[in-house]
Amino acid sequence: NEYKSYLRMTEPDISSKTLKQIADDIKKDVANMVLCLDIIPSLATFPDIPILNLTTLEKQRFCIAITTLGLLIIGQDHNKFEGLSLLENKCLGKGPKLAHQVSINKSDVIFFETIYSLLDYISPAYRAAFCDELCSKLLQLQGSEDSPD
User: Whole-model pTM?
Assistant: First the structure.
Protein backbone atom coordinates (compact mmCIF):
# COMPACT_ATOMS: atom_id res chain seq x y z
CA ASN A 1 0.00 0.00 0.00
CA GLU A 2 2.94 2.33 0.55
CA TYR A 3 3.83 2.30 -3.14
CA LYS A 4 0.72 4.36 -3.92
CA SER A 5 2.20 7.39 -2.18
CA TYR A 6 5.47 6.98 -4.12
CA LEU A 7 3.57 7.15 -7.39
CA ARG A 8 2.02 10.48 -6.40
CA MET A 9 5.45 12.11 -6.30
CA THR A 10 6.58 14.23 -9.19
CA GLU A 11 8.89 12.59 -11.69
CA PRO A 12 12.16 14.11 -10.40
CA ASP A 13 11.33 12.87 -6.89
CA ILE A 14 11.16 9.23 -7.91
CA SER A 15 14.45 7.39 -8.10
CA SER A 16 15.11 4.00 -9.63
CA LYS A 17 15.56 2.69 -6.07
CA THR A 18 12.06 3.90 -5.22
CA LEU A 19 10.63 2.22 -8.33
CA LYS A 20 12.34 -1.03 -7.35
CA GLN A 21 10.81 -0.71 -3.85
CA ILE A 22 7.43 -0.16 -5.48
CA ALA A 23 7.91 -3.41 -7.41
CA ASP A 24 8.67 -5.28 -4.17
CA ASP A 25 5.62 -3.74 -2.46
CA ILE A 26 3.38 -4.66 -5.39
CA LYS A 27 4.58 -8.25 -5.26
CA LYS A 28 3.76 -8.49 -1.54
CA ASP A 29 0.36 -6.77 -1.88
CA VAL A 30 -1.19 -8.88 -4.63
CA ALA A 31 0.63 -12.20 -4.37
CA ASN A 32 -2.54 -14.05 -3.37
CA MET A 33 -4.67 -12.40 -6.09
CA VAL A 34 -2.58 -13.50 -9.10
CA LEU A 35 -1.09 -16.82 -10.16
CA CYS A 36 2.38 -15.43 -10.72
CA LEU A 37 4.14 -12.11 -10.21
CA ASP A 38 7.89 -12.00 -10.75
CA ILE A 39 10.24 -9.05 -10.88
CA ILE A 40 12.62 -9.66 -13.75
CA PRO A 41 16.20 -8.39 -13.96
CA SER A 42 16.67 -4.88 -15.33
CA LEU A 43 16.96 -4.49 -19.05
CA ALA A 44 20.11 -2.86 -20.44
CA THR A 45 18.01 -0.43 -22.48
CA PHE A 46 15.92 0.65 -19.47
CA PRO A 47 17.99 -0.16 -16.36
CA ASP A 48 15.94 2.06 -14.04
CA ILE A 49 12.52 0.67 -14.94
CA PRO A 50 11.38 -2.40 -13.00
CA ILE A 51 9.61 -4.97 -15.14
CA LEU A 52 7.05 -7.47 -13.82
CA ASN A 53 5.92 -10.74 -15.35
CA LEU A 54 2.33 -11.21 -14.26
CA THR A 55 -0.10 -14.11 -14.71
CA THR A 56 -3.71 -13.38 -13.80
CA LEU A 57 -6.07 -15.84 -12.15
CA GLU A 58 -7.47 -16.44 -15.65
CA LYS A 59 -3.96 -17.56 -16.73
CA GLN A 60 -3.44 -14.52 -18.96
CA ARG A 61 0.22 -13.49 -19.08
CA PHE A 62 1.47 -9.91 -19.20
CA CYS A 63 4.68 -7.95 -18.95
CA ILE A 64 4.32 -4.71 -16.94
CA ALA A 65 6.68 -1.73 -16.61
CA ILE A 66 6.69 0.43 -13.48
CA THR A 67 7.38 4.00 -14.53
CA THR A 68 7.10 7.47 -13.05
CA LEU A 69 3.92 7.85 -15.11
CA GLY A 70 2.39 4.71 -13.63
CA LEU A 71 2.18 1.04 -14.54
CA LEU A 72 2.14 0.20 -18.24
CA ILE A 73 1.35 -3.10 -19.93
CA ILE A 74 4.27 -3.51 -22.32
CA GLY A 75 3.72 -7.09 -23.46
CA GLN A 76 0.98 -9.68 -23.85
CA ASP A 77 3.18 -12.45 -22.44
CA HIS A 78 6.05 -12.85 -19.99
CA ASN A 79 9.33 -11.31 -21.15
CA LYS A 80 7.67 -9.52 -24.08
CA PHE A 81 8.85 -5.93 -24.18
CA GLU A 82 7.36 -4.53 -27.40
CA GLY A 83 5.57 -1.76 -25.49
CA LEU A 84 8.85 -0.38 -24.11
CA SER A 85 9.24 1.61 -27.30
CA LEU A 86 6.32 3.73 -26.08
CA LEU A 87 8.46 4.93 -23.18
CA GLU A 88 10.97 6.41 -25.61
CA ASN A 89 8.28 8.30 -27.50
CA LYS A 90 8.76 12.02 -27.04
CA CYS A 91 4.98 12.55 -27.08
CA LEU A 92 4.80 11.31 -23.50
CA GLY A 93 7.05 13.99 -22.08
CA LYS A 94 6.35 14.85 -18.46
CA GLY A 95 2.76 15.93 -19.03
CA PRO A 96 0.55 12.86 -18.58
CA LYS A 97 -0.63 12.19 -15.07
CA LEU A 98 -1.02 8.76 -13.57
CA ALA A 99 -3.99 6.70 -14.76
CA HIS A 100 -4.08 9.07 -17.73
CA GLN A 101 -4.84 7.82 -21.19
CA VAL A 102 -2.64 9.19 -23.93
CA SER A 103 -2.74 8.67 -27.67
CA ILE A 104 0.42 7.65 -29.49
CA ASN A 105 0.33 6.74 -33.17
CA LYS A 106 -3.48 6.44 -33.09
CA SER A 107 -3.43 3.84 -30.34
CA ASP A 108 -4.41 4.44 -26.76
CA VAL A 109 -1.86 3.80 -24.04
CA ILE A 110 -3.10 3.54 -20.48
CA PHE A 111 -0.90 4.22 -17.48
CA PHE A 112 -2.42 2.75 -14.32
CA GLU A 113 -1.89 4.55 -11.03
CA THR A 114 -1.95 1.34 -8.98
CA ILE A 115 -1.59 -2.38 -9.49
CA TYR A 116 -5.19 -2.64 -8.26
CA SER A 117 -6.53 -0.50 -11.10
CA LEU A 118 -4.45 -2.46 -13.61
CA LEU A 119 -5.67 -5.83 -12.30
CA ASP A 120 -9.25 -4.57 -12.20
CA TYR A 121 -8.88 -3.66 -15.89
CA ILE A 122 -7.43 -7.01 -17.05
CA SER A 123 -8.76 -9.61 -14.59
CA PRO A 124 -12.40 -10.13 -13.58
CA ALA A 125 -11.26 -12.94 -11.25
CA TYR A 126 -9.05 -10.41 -9.44
CA ARG A 127 -12.16 -8.38 -8.61
CA ALA A 128 -13.80 -11.43 -7.07
CA ALA A 129 -10.64 -12.32 -5.10
CA PHE A 130 -10.32 -8.74 -3.88
CA CYS A 131 -13.96 -8.69 -2.75
CA ASP A 132 -13.55 -12.04 -0.99
CA GLU A 133 -10.45 -10.83 0.85
CA LEU A 134 -12.15 -7.57 1.82
CA CYS A 135 -15.23 -9.40 3.14
CA SER A 136 -13.01 -11.76 5.11
CA LYS A 137 -11.14 -8.88 6.73
CA LEU A 138 -14.37 -7.06 7.53
CA LEU A 139 -15.80 -10.19 9.15
CA GLN A 140 -12.62 -10.59 11.22
CA LEU A 141 -12.88 -6.98 12.29
CA GLN A 142 -16.53 -7.38 13.18
CA GLY A 143 -15.74 -10.57 15.13
CA SER A 144 -13.01 -8.82 17.14
CA GLU A 145 -15.39 -5.96 17.99
CA ASP A 146 -18.15 -8.38 19.04
CA SER A 147 -15.93 -10.49 21.32
CA PRO A 148 -15.93 -9.62 25.04
CA ASP A 149 -12.88 -7.82 26.44
Answer: 0.73
